[in-house]
């Protein structure tokens, strides 16, 4: 039998890579700390991706690029194999990043004054982009119910969507980790069908990280008639899944040729139609050969989430859970309300995290990124728990 592959999952010196997570903090004069904030992986991309990238580097002609069926077929096949969904490769549209696709849609399709509905807490950078392009947001609260699930209220959703132009659905949801189940997706589809002017933007960038009995499904799979009618755009990306966020490859799936043509048009209008030279070989290698590596790192992350939850839940007043999906741990830390409170916690624990104020004003919450070697994550969580205990006693 062939030896099992050895994957490099160790944590390496993270500085000196123009990193938004590490180098920027240092450049801003923040004390060095373990950064468990920005949601990208602290694992080295699979060797198969490095091989493809080395080949690209070695060539040395980093020329203008174009898209060919191999990219779209790899994107479609990944969906088919991992999510039991087969969108048409011919109708898919490359975008460098999901945020750029949303920005282009906001600017050229939705327009000034468009009303966009989404759940809160929310991944703020995309909301910021919508607002900066003139959209007006309406937020629906996602509140924890029994057993760490976040139940939906379809009446409130329908009331909000009745006069809306777009609905931004993040599935799995960042930061709560909620994975929308079949019944919920069917409920959303019913509401969307009743509000025929609404375009649904599905940001499913976390789709490859779903745990236990939970099952991710794209809304488009549950509501194929809405997808074919052009009412749903499904965004997917290998960026988080394969530690490729900075390589910039994402894809927008539609089931409608007119929407595809419109997406191509707004991409050109935004001047982002030529992919970065490294994006395409990286994405194709990841999607076609990266599955075994992904299974390996997922096991580590799942373990981090579970052990992290155990340690944090032992702190009086603190509560978290193994999320249904994502590599993110959303932690209730009552009493931490202000930036100053969070900073005090962060400094004492030597850990950077994303605090709840950055997700649309959710004091008392923080988000940890568990996609890092367990040898680093677990001691860090122990440290955080100790500080939470100590500060809890002096609060
Ligand atoms: C929910 C969600 N959407 C989108 C993004 C960013 O994706 P992209 O780099 O493709 O714009 C992130 C990154 O953290 C995210 O968490």
Automatic annotation (TrEMBL):
Coiled-coil residue windows: none
Cofactors named for this entry: pyridoxal 5'-phosphate
InterPro entries, from UniProt? Answer: Aminotransferase_I/II_large, Class-II_PLP-Dep_Aminotrans, PyrdxlP-dep_Trfase, PyrdxlP-dep_Trfase_major, PyrdxlP-dep_Trfase_small
Q: Residue ranges of the Aminotransferase class I/classII large domain?
A: 34-384
Q: What is its EC number?
A: 4.4.1.13
Q: Please provide the record's keywords in A-Z order.
A: Lyase, Pyridoxal phosphate
Q: What class of enzyme is it?
A: lyase
GO terms for MF: cysteine-S-conjugate beta-lyase activity; pyridoxal phosphate binding
Keyword check for Cytoplasm, yes or no: no
**SUPFAM superfamilies assigned to the protein according to its UniProt record, in alphabetical order:** PLP-dependent transferases
Pfam families, per database record: Aminotran_1_2 (PF00155)
- PANTHER family membership: PROTEIN MALY
**Family listed:** Belongs to the class-II pyridoxal-phosphate-dependent aminotransferase family. MalY/PatB cystathionine beta-lyase subfamily.
What is the protein name stated in its UniProt record?
cysteine-S-conjugate beta-lyase
């Amino acid at each position: 039998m062939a030896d099992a592959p050895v994957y490099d999952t160790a944590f390496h010196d993270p500085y000196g890579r123009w990193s938004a997570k590490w180098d920027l903090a240092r450049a801003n004069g923040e004390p060095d700390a373990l950064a468990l904030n920005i949601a990208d992986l602290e694992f080295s991309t699979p060797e198969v991706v490095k091989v493809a990238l080395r080949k690209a580097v070695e060539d040395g002609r980093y020329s203008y690029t174009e898209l060919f069926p191999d990219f779209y077929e790899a994107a479609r096949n990944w969906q088919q194999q991992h999510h039991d969904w087969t969108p048409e490769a011919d109708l898919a549209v490359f975008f460098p990043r999901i945020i750029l696709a949303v920005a282009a849609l906001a600017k050229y399709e939705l327009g000034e004054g468009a009303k966009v509905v989404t759940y809160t807490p929310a991944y703020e950078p995309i909301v910021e982009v919508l607002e900066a392009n003139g959209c007006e947001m309406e937020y629906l609260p996602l509140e924890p119910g029994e057993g760490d699930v976040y139940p939906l209220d379809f009446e409130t959703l329908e009331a909000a969507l009745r006069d809306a132009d777009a609905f931004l659905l993040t599935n799995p949801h960042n930061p709560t980790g909620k994975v929308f189940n079949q019944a919920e997706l069917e409920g959303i589809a019913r509401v969307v069908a009743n509000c025929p002017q609404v375009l649904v933007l599905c940001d499913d960038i976390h789709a490859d990280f779903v745990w236990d009995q939970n099952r991710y499904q794209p809304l488009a799979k549950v509501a194929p008639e809405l997808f074919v009618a052009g009412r749903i755009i499904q965004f997917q990306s290998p960026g988080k899944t394969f530690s490729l966020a900075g390589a910039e490859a994402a894809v927008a799936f539609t089931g409608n040729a007119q929407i595809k043509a419109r997406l191509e048009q707004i991409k050109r209008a935004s001047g982002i139609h030529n992919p970065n030279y490294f994006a395409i070989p990286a994405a194709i290698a990841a999607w076609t050969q990266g599955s075994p590596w992904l299974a390996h790192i997922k096991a580590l992350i799942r373990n981090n989430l579970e052990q992290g939850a155990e340690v944090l839940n032992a702190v009086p007043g603190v509560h978290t859970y193994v999320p249904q999906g994502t590599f993110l741990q959303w932690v209730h830390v009552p009493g931490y309300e202000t930036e100053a409170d969070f900073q005090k916690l962060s400094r004492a624990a030597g850990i950077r995290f994303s605090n709840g104020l950055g997700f649309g004003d959710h004091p008392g919450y923080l988000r940890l990124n568990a996609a890092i070697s367990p040898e680093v994550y677990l001691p860090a969580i122990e440290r955080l728990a100790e500080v939470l205990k100590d500060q809890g006693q002096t609060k």
